[in-house]
Amino acid sequence: MLTLSRRFAAVAFSALALVACGAAGDGAGTSGANPSEANADGELGHVLGQADAPLTIIEYASPTCPACKYFHDTVKPTIEEKYISTGKVKFVFREYPLNEIDVAAYAMARCAGDDKFFDVLDDLFENQEGIRYAAQNGVVKTTLGAIGQRHGIADTATFEACLSNSEIRQALADTYATSEKWGVEGTPTFIIDGVKHNFQGEYTTAEGFSKQIDAKLAELGAQ
Question: What region holds the Thioredoxin domain (predicted)?
Fold first, then answer.
């Protein structure tokens, strides 16, 4: 059984919104594998956009990370409108849990079903402050359970079953393991055409991120 401890509250929300969560420090902004290896991880993750889009962007993120919420609320909508919905970008979201609450939240999102994963994720980010408050007061499972109920996880027994489901736990572990190849050290982290980019500089604004995508699409002859 998963234990959701109060100690999460003391560390998970200490960073400012534009500081990547769990980051190792002032490391290089880009690194990683050769672009030819961009899809070598298989199909792990949750996909938005067309499978044959010319550019693939992978995001590793945590639902309790303020920087991830900032990206989700402020930058991602522009990417969805300009690139994902137009068939230019395939966006792959991969779970990168930073704490016990992340594990529970992601297990619940997977349990809701593939077609509801992003709906649950939106709900988690929208209620991040409420999850923070619940963690501080030792009632985070109740808060997560209420979110789950809005997405078809009807009762406490079903919620508990989601948290203890061995197949879901293994899927989360397998997805997390892919981050080792890319050297992911904090969230959010992006893999764009096989190159790792940390959440800093131009990648913290919709305009800057769009500029980087445009440059890569032009390089690929797909703009």
Answer: 26-218
